[in-house]
Amino acid sequence: MKSEKPLTDADIVALYLARDEAAIEHTARIYGHYCLSVAMNILNSQPDAEECVNDTYLKTWNSIPPQKPTVLRLFLGKITRNLAIDRYRQRKTRNPEFDLALEELSEILPAREEEDSDLPMLLAGFLEDLPAEERNLFILRYWHGHSVARLAGAFKMQPNNLSARLYRTREKLRAYLSERGHQV
Amino acid sequence: MTERNKTRALNAFAAMSRISDEYVLAAEQMLYEAEAGIAYPAKPEGRFRRFLNSGWSAAVISGLIALAVLVFIIRAGKEPPTSPPPAPPADSTIEMSDEGVNYSLIMEQSNYPEGADSITVAMVGKDKGEPISTPGGWHLEKLTAEGAEAVPISYTEEFTEAAPKKDEYAFLTKAIRIEGSPLTAGTYRLHATEYDGEKYVSVAWCEFTVEDAETRTQEPESGHTETEVHPVTEFPAAEDKLFAINEITVTPSPFGGRIDVAALILATKPNEVLEIPDHTVFVVKLKGTPNPSEATWSLSSTGIGTRDPANGVWVGDDAYAAFDVRISLHTPEAWLPGVYRLYILNTDEEAIDYADFSLGVYQPPETAVPSTDEYPAVTEPAYE
Prior knowledge:
heterodimer, A: 9 helices, 0% strand, B: alpha+beta
């Protein structure tokens, strides 16, 4: 019996570039679950998340070419994440766990709204200076939107301890922003 | 949170999409490894809290106090070091350099149990904001009545980069593995070395002890960072134990009069409101001394999680309320190495809880690099 060799990212991207619809099939098989979990963290609704993932495939189909991602998983993850955020903006049903993450993030927003546009650059600079483990936890919470309970379970920590660590990182971020002239 | 702020927070969350792919992949890898059980084995966190809530705590504490009295008797006269370590005698197996270095060495632990097969040393910059140079090698020796004998070790060449902020000292640690037989009881000296073109010479050093099993006392429950039980309890235990210190971390400033203590304080029961009352007193004592240190302190505390802005307290949902407390402690002179105890007292000067922390044995700049004139080197260094 002939076994099918799993496709690499480069193989799948090549299918997209050749406008072969098998690209979507392979994407769904390899990365469908990952995209669904990214969307679920934000939306906490299976139908909404599935719709979001389907939109991700369409957007990916329309984006490659011209784009030619090297790490397909992250490329898909970012699209899913952005689509899920857009959907969440329009939706009335709230996801309490995700709202908690947003509330935590709101603590470090610049006092002046017009300074919000500086935030992406400042965040990138701030993360560069963080120790790897602290940076990873921050990203898992505020990029992926993982719940404190899940992260605490994974890293064998008390949820309160994990919250404390995240809180300290946010305080560092607050100090970082203040040092750069942003009132928080 | 207002709708406007929610929108802004969503924008901030969306902005995270722009961070480096490398960071996101590293974070995913860490979570994957943790959930697959490859990393982060179960730690005994929470045992202390469970212990506190159990009926056994009073009996066990009584037992520990009795044991502590015994240990105190055994260890009488062996107080934590209150002065810099003595200058190295001439019987070192390695030649001393008179070249200065811009760091000092601190052992992560001032004493290790017998049989230890690795040690960790920290390098602390002498000047704020200045990166430190990393040594060319390491040399370990055991001090004996006859002189000193070299102990074979191994270590990796990689160092983490230490680029401190302008108001911080550079700080990095190095794990050193003991090759051959594990450490036996005695006093050891670890040297940072540099190659002078012919041989390796010592440019900085620090000492630590290895205690045999009989001398060494029991490890505490998690949540207390002490490594030994001590009978000094000047403050009676409060009856109403509203909260406990769950985690304590200390940022030492070896050359200054300030240390920063970050303590995670947890309610002792779930679903209860927790407040750190205004009249709470924090006292820090060098263990084994009769009087509290002369440190003055300033405190900032913040609830963790969803907060009620009216009173700053937080109630967990089937969880323990928590406060993240930061205390800055100042003394007129530098903090001395040793084991300190942080007490939280109520108005009746009863201890609600305490936790110990240690400041490593360190070398002040003036003694970190002894001159060769003062301490003549042996002619045949055993280490190259």
